[in-house]
Write a structure and sequence with these properties.
- It is a single chain.
- The protein is mainly alpha-helical.
- The protein has one domain.
- Helix content is about 70%, strand content about 0%.
- The chain contains three helices and no strands.
């Protein structure tokens, strides 16, 4: 019981940290797909992260230094 409560809080903390630093949140994306687009295929976590990196950095550097 306590372990699951701590795990849930830690998971929320990690998700919040990822949002602050701009990292993608795969679990939130999957929840969104299942709720809003139930017929859409769910990519693996690796596929999702690769698509994020491609979209983020494909057009070149985002700053000068």
């Amino acid at each position: 019981m306590i372990t699951s409560l701590l795990a849930a809080r830690f998971s929320k903390l990690v998700a919040g940290f990822k949002r602050v630093v701009g990292m993608p949140d795969y679990a939130a994306y999957v929840a969104h797909l299942r709720a809003v687009h139930p017929d859409a295929p769910v990519p693996s976590e690796r596929e999702y992260f690769d698509a994020y990196l491609k979209g983020r950095y494909e057009s070149g550097p985002t700053r000068c230094c």
